[in-house]
């Protein structure tokens, strides 16, 4: 999922007053971010088991990532515009509720179309949350504390990437994939109860209209950023969605080793946050190129050098570093390209990222079903390298330094 939208116009109102510390409320949003990231990518570590039990190919099972991404792309815009001036507290409760219902439907379903319906409900929660959640956290805290609030939200994202996804994979291996989704439902229920207890009233003073949304796309540098985002996100998720089948079938690793390797991948992403921040502070263009080259080479070389434990581990670590750099790089570029338009364009960015995520899972799935699981790694690598080439050819650094960066996976 996303600080793509931390300055949305609808959430730019003054923070409400508090008689108590606002930080528990911020934490309730942060654990919502953790739960959403974990749930959105939970199928990644469980695809072989899900495909086998429901009688579909692993490429078709990848639709469990594609469908919520596509729905989230639409929901980011429709929720942003459709909620009007509704109290944002109730909106967040509803979005968290879709995550709870989604997990329960998937856990109890024996029909793959019904599973996809459950995952589509999740897409509503994902798109709506990333269009609203980060900005809401800044309303909860006193002026000057916004960066800390945002860092807490995206710490939840990082923890979900580092621990949630591999933990779900391990839980699925030990007790079955349905138990992993039941556990996701329990987490969603706890998040909902926590938010109902801790979130104060968050009334809106204004609303976004459809007419405001394309404002960012009128800026050429922002349009280039959107194109770069599409390339690298499609490449990332064409490969990442099928990392578990690859490690199982090509690298011949057992399920527990794969779960550990997914954990290592997430930890490498945290290191990528730090490395990417240092590069971006000097040159955003260099950060984008580095991200594309490192991601492209590490994924494309997996079928050649990642056929055993050592090679696969090294390349997955390098790939994880690039993954940690990826969202920081593209978000910083777009923010610098059109800072005046980000208030109305945040939902557009979320939509772009989610369409690319869904498209990547779909493209990878087609490649897996027709050319084998290794082809998804090659496709992902080629697209990431294409992003680096486009950046090298057409991107030029602006005068604004990259100072405040908030990472999101």
TrEMBL record:
Which SUPFAM superfamilies is this protein grouped with? MFS general substrate transporter (SSF103473)
Q: How does this protein lie in the membrane?
A: Multi-pass membrane protein
Q: Could you list the residue ranges that cross the membrane?
A: 25-51, 63-83, 90-110, 116-137, 149-169, 175-193, 224-243, 255-275, 312-335, 347-368, 374-395
Cellular localisation: Cell membrane
- Entry-linked InterPro entries: MFS, MFS_dom, MFS_Efflux_Transporters, MFS_trans_sf
Pinpoint the Major facilitator superfamily (MFS) profile domain residues.
25-399
Q: Which PROSITE patterns match?
A: MFS
Which Pfam families does this entry report, sorted A to Z? MFS_1
Superkingdom of origin: Bacteria
Q: Which UniProt keywords apply?
A: Cell membrane, Membrane, Transmembrane, Transmembrane helix
Tell me the PANTHER family matching this sequence.
Answer: CHLORAMPHENICOL EFFLUX PUMP RV0191 (PTHR43124:SF3), PURINE EFFLUX PUMP PBUE (PTHR43124)
**Protein's UniProt name:** MFS transporter
What species is given as this protein's source? Duganella levis
